[in-house]
Amino acid sequence: MDETSAPRVNSLQMQSASHTHPVDQNAVLTVSLAILGISLLLQESIAGMQYLTFLIGVGLGITLLHAAFGFSGSWRLFIREQDGTGIRAQLLLLGITSLLFFPILGQVFPSFQAGAALAPVGTSVMVGAFLFGIGMQLGGGCGSGTLYTMGQGQVDMLITLAFFIVGATVGTAHLHWWLSLPGYGSFSVIGQFGWWQALLVQLVILAALYGLVRFLEFRRHGKINPVEWQVPRHEIAQRLTHGHWPLWWGVLGLAALNLATLMVTGHPWSITYAFGLWGAKMWAAVGGDPGSWAYWSSGYPAQSLNSSTLADTTSVMDFGIILGALLAAALAGRFAPAMKLTRTRVLTAVAGGLLLGYGARLGFGCNIGALVGGITSGSLHGWLWMVAGFCGGIAGVHLRIWLKVDKPMGMQQ
Amino acid sequence: MKQNQTRMIVATAITAAAIAVAVDHTRQRLPEPEEQLASQEAVIIIDEGEELPVETDMDCGKPVARGRRDSPCSL
Question: Which residues pair with A183 in a beta bridge?
Fold first, then answer.
């Protein structure tokens, strides 16, 4: 099972009895010790609240895996079969996170200040998100999906992640050229209209999209799959520990942890900046000079390139997500599943990873940093990212059919 | 690919990554405590109608206040 089949699996899992696989005790013990050790190391050697950032990442990894919360699979299900369950869960996540973020970013609480994920609206974001959308379908995961399925022990996602890093690094080398193409600068709806007016408009738009997805789903299937939230009372503790969580639990967990990220780090949850950083550091380690590239020559990038990886909040959160997903997979007895790695799968993982990485740099982030972070920060680039990324997703779905990874439209997978 | 093989591959990859991070950690300068603490306090300054220059060194919109650019936000 990969992240791309997550929503369908999630709904099926909800109908089945709860946990059935034996807990992988060795993996649980090893990963728990690793999480404890890394937390202590961060507390000891990195000042500030980096250990909390890491633990939030662990929580995100557990939530993503137990709720099987993915973007690429749910987009593909909607494009192919108008099954909108996963997309509706994402819209709920956007709405709830906006409710939490807008007052904070609108400075309703003057004592607490945090930064919005603002980025320019322009060609770079549009092209980047489109490429990322294709990459999601070929690579088998999005920004968060790649990390948590890799943490689950899916070998093909290791390939996707490796080339995600390569693509992101190349993207940092080219970004300045892309930014020279037409664009409009950044646009904050909170700054422009005020936080509550902007929130109201945003919630109306999200509700309209939710209604549209429901309408299309009903027109195709004659019924609506609910976004699950209930489990039998006697199963709650077991489900919390071993999974499988209803999608609603995933929505609430991700929104709460994104808020925690904002409060601890001062910025919304982001993932892919770290991939470019890791690639640049590796390039430097083999004799390259990424510090001479415009992207890495000033500001935070220059600072992070010349500091420990453990001082970068995004890197530390990403490590937490991988280990959190690994822990959750071990608790669910689903760590490192046996799989068949075909030549086609290797090729799509390579191509998808490159597109994901390059697209994420051009798009100022992935589905998390740009789509969720951007939209819930009131940045217009987040909405542009969503539209362009979804168009890329449609192209990616057709590419999968052309490559014979999936059956033609209208045929059941 | 059997489960033992996938476990071995994943464990090897994670171990290699951990070694790389450890090597990087020992080679690089750590931020001073005050510096690191300050980086946790990103600042938002939303000036109505102001457009940002198209640069990569924006920091969550514009928190270059305090003369710092210390967040990966939107990068």
Answer: A122
Q: A 255-284 residues with CB below 8 A of B?
A: 264-268, 270, 273-274, 281-282
Q: What is the DSSP letter of A369?
A: I
Q: What is the least distance, in Å, from the CA of A218 to any CA of chain B?
A: 37
Instruction: Calculate the alpha carbon distances from A399 to A206, A240, A407 in Å.
Output: 29, 37, 11
For residue A100, CA distances in Å to A103, A138, A257, A376, B16 come to 7, 33, 11, 9, 38
Rounded Cα–Cα distance for residues A1 and A267 (Å)? 33
Q: For A168, which residue in chain B has the nearest alpha carbon?
A: B75
Among A244, A238, A237, A257, CA closest to A6: A244
The answer to whether A272 and A357 have CB atoms below 8 angstroms apart is: yes
Contact A72, A140 (CB under 8 A): yes
A324 touches chain B (CB under 8 A): no
To the nearest whole angstrom, how far is the Cα of A75 from the nearest Cα of chain B? 23
> ipTM of this predicted complex?
0.86
**Window from A311-325, A338-352, B7-21, B45-59 with minimum mean pLDDT:** B45-59
Q: Render pLDDT for A154-191 as a digit per residue (tens, 0 to 9).
A: 999 999 999 999 999 999 999 999 999 999 999 999 99
| A338 — pLDDT class (breaks 50, 70, 90) | confident
* A178-181, Cβ contacts within 8 angstroms, sequence gap of 24 or more: A178/A123, A178/A124, A178/A127, A178/A128, A178/A362, A179/A120, A179/A122, A179/A124, A179/B54, A179/B55, A179/B56, A181/A122, A181/A123, A181/A124
Q: Per-residue pLDDT tens for A30-54?
A: 999 999 999 999 999 887 789 999 9
**Percentage with pLDDT > 70 across chain A:** 95
A313 chain-B contacts, CB cut-off 8 A: 39, 71-72
DSSP string, A107-137: TSSTT--------EEEHHHHHHHHHHHHHHH
Q: pTM for this one? A: 0.89
Q: Alpha-carbon torsion A174, A175, A176, A179, what sign?
A: positive
